[in-house]
Design brief:
single chain; 238 residues; alpha/beta; 8 helices; 5 strands; 46% helix
Length: 238
Amino acid sequence: MAEWTTQRDDTLAALREHVGELQLPQIAHGRRAIILFEGLQGSAKKFALRELTAAFDPCHFTVHSTPFDRREASEGHWLARFWRQLPSAGNTTIFFRSWYRRVLDDRVLGRTAEETIPRVFDEINEFEAQQRDYGTLLVKLYFDVSADVQEQRVARRRQSPWRVRGADDDYIRADEPAYQTALEQLRGNTDTRWSPWRTIDGDDEQQAALAALEAVAEAWSKAMPARLPQVVTSPRVA
């Protein structure tokens, strides 16, 4: 077991280095990228996020955590706070939870009106298509987890004296029927050709991190230019 763990540690280290190298042409060519980390509490998202951020150049990415915001209505369109967090040229924005909360957690918890769901799906697809049209790479990772593993992880977190009060208000079990229905509809409506979902098995944290980094590496390898940028010199004026 120890040998297997060491082997996976070595594989993760090599993969982090590889992802870091793949980021260089993105920076040089000024390409934009967005990565979404979606999934319930206890689904290994944060473990994988630590591994990914350890691979990237810290000067060229930002991470935004997007919990439910009761003040959202005062900001205009519900996507407005995400528009302000989009990446600039050469940079990556990582959303730790994203606009998909509206049709997952918020829907199950009664914060999203059911009659608005079809419109929300349309607005999400249009928004993501706009990102594609402007040359932004979008990688959507959904971390799946079994209810038993999720409960064990959440129980350990509850023992911490530093646990944030009210965190259980957003807790949804992985086997909650309403959540599974919402997730099935999400996949059916937003697993598009231009921004497909990649499902990560979160029961094993280290394996989940490997799968997430492999998905990012594959997407970067396909999307980022392999050639060096050309230096344009001004013509000599006679």
